[in-house]
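Sorry, any thoughts here?
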Amino acid sequence: MHVQLFVLSDGETNEGYSFNKAAPIIKSLSVSVNTIGYNAQLEELKKLSTINESATINADNDDVVYQLKQLFNAEL
């Protein structure tokens, strides 16, 4: 079974594990983390998504609905 997470975030870390501590865990579990950034620091979200070759979407774009449809269709 392949686990996928969809995370809507601004990319800011305010509590919990740091990226450097969480990244090896995500990598070893082969969890796909698809990130959706809204008013976000997309570079931080891209780092998280690239661990296991997942997608990052900028929700500030006008075509966000289309991008989300494409992502869900590709993943299902």
